Structures are given as structure tokens and as C-alpha cells.
Amino acid sequence: MNNQNSQSTTEGDALQPNPPSSFSPFGLDLFGEPIRPETKSPVAQKFIVSPFSVLSARDGAWQDRKRAWTGMGIQSELGRADEMTYMGAAKSFDHYRVKEGVRESTEEQGTSIFDPVVCELMYSWFSGKGAQVVDPFAGGSVRGIVASCLGRKYWGGELRGEQVEENRKQGADLCPGDTDLCWEEGDSVKTLDNAPDADFVFSCPPYGDLEIYSDDPDDISNMEYHTFKAAYGRIILKAVKRLKQDRFACFVVGDFRDKKGFYRNFVSDTIAAFEAAGARFYNEAILVTSVGSGSMRVTRQFEAGRKLVKTHQNILVFCKGDWKKATKAAIEGEIQTNTKTI
Fold first, then answer.
1. Number of structural domains the chain divides into
2. How confident is the model over 82-136, as pLDDT tens digits?
3. Residue 248 falls inside a structural domain
4. What's the pTM value of the predicted model, to 2 decimals?
């Protein structure tokens, strides 16, 4: 990717909606301009997807966009050892997250990558180009790759060395020369102390012990829920401390059940942790995900225990400080700095 100077704007444009990015996952046309699929909605044309509180990843336009992103070569599932990722029935596919409606099964290792379209929307809506993103639960490469493509700086904390190594390989392949794309190995409770000051905190945490990522005792996916929740709260506290005043943060989460079949109320626990850290709950969106294997499980699951098949996630947005100033910072950053293109 090469740096490309953005067009200058007049002072009167400073608080207008973010202009279209000079990057498109669909590539460039014959004239070197980013290809932008046509949409019937002028609102969607301006904001990529209409910014309503229900977002559907089932829509054809969303799926086309997701395929364009993954077609670039993002392989966020690499770096997970099968024996660490799966337990029992989960060894054939990512059983727990598929069951809870927060992952889709794929041909690659049975896991799926974090949806790059969600990344694109959150970066475009709540941060500007040149913004520093801090991701305390980095996991795979996708959030870093998309951040780089959209002209953001990225710092991701990840406990597992093998995952960091794979992420760095992909970063070097897909975003060559980007020195602002960084994954740091270690426990985020410790590494966040040295993370850069953030314009946007964005992450997707592990859902308790539903999916085991490693046998490291510092890995919170190994912990009992009460211990997990305490460690989770400490990481959120440190992430919010890294967040600059008058800026946004976003976590993508989903509730999940305990061993007795009752919901943990993880969404509320996440909100409470951010509020305690000094970031107010500002937006929530329901992300409708594909039914996937749910169509095969719904009859048995509902007949056996009247449990609904979960096919959504919660996108939680928080604001540290003044939301008006945070909005201004995101918009002004969008039009002031350099962009990147393939």
C-alpha cells in the first residue's frame, strides 16, 4: 500500500459528514478511482451502511462487501492451534460460538474471522483517518488490517505469541511498509501501560470460557467467570485510561450461557465495566448475523429446552467525555490526514 495525500478542504467543510474514503475493498477502476457499489439508499451511499440500531450482516450488499475484504487475503483464523481452540464437540468446528450465535462456521479450521465490514463501519463512523486505534483483545489480524487500509494507526494486544507472529506476517504481506500497524505480545493488563494514547478503542473480547485460546494461566478464557469478569474489568479500565478525552470506544460482544443454561448477562457486565472506568454508554446496535447451522439446530434446541437460537451480536459504543467533541474529533480527523490505497 502506498501513502496518498488527500484533497484539501475548506474550513466550512470541517463538520460535514465524513467524505468517502480513497480506499475501497472492491479495488480501483481503470482511472485509479475507488470502486463504490451503487446503492438505492442515499443514506447508505453516504455512510456505507445506513446507521440504524439494527444492522444486518445477512444483506446481499453486506455479504458482497465482506467477500471483497476477505478476498484481499485476510486470514484471521491463522495462528490458533486446534487443540487449544476447541474442546470436546467443538473439535469439529467452533461449536460454542456457533451455538451462541456469535460465530459462523467456515471451511478454515471451523472458525471464522471477525467481520471486516463491522471494522470498516466502526472505524469510519467513530474515528477519523490518522486516528490511533487500541485493541486490547486483538486475536486475529482482521481489525489491524482493516485499520491500516482505512488509514488508521493500530495497536493490538495479544497474549499468544503464535497469533502475534501470524498477524505480523499478514500485516507485512497485505500492508507492506506500514510502521503504524502493531501487534504486541503479552497480557493486556500489563502491555496496555505502554500502549499509545488512543483516539478509538475497538475490540471483541473472549466470551468467558466458551472458547479456550491457550493454556496460559494469564489467558482470561481459562478463568472461572467471576475471575474472568474481574480481569476483564481491569483490562477495560486500562484501555479507557489510554483513550483520549472526548473520544469513542466500541466493543462487539454477545451474551452466552453458563453451564446450567442461563445467560451470564455479559453484555450488561461489559457496560458496567466501561461505566466504572469513566466511559458512558452511548450507542447500541444489534448486528443480525447469518443463521448458519442454526437451521439444523433450532428444532431440537427449542423442543428440548425452549432456548431460542441466537443469531445476533451487540455492538456497544461508549464515549469518554463530551460526545459533541468526540464527534467533531472523528470528523475533523477524517478530512485532515493522509489516506492509503492499494
1. 1
2. 444 433 333 333 433 444 444 444 433 345 579 999 999 999 999 999 999 999 9
3. yes
4. 0.80
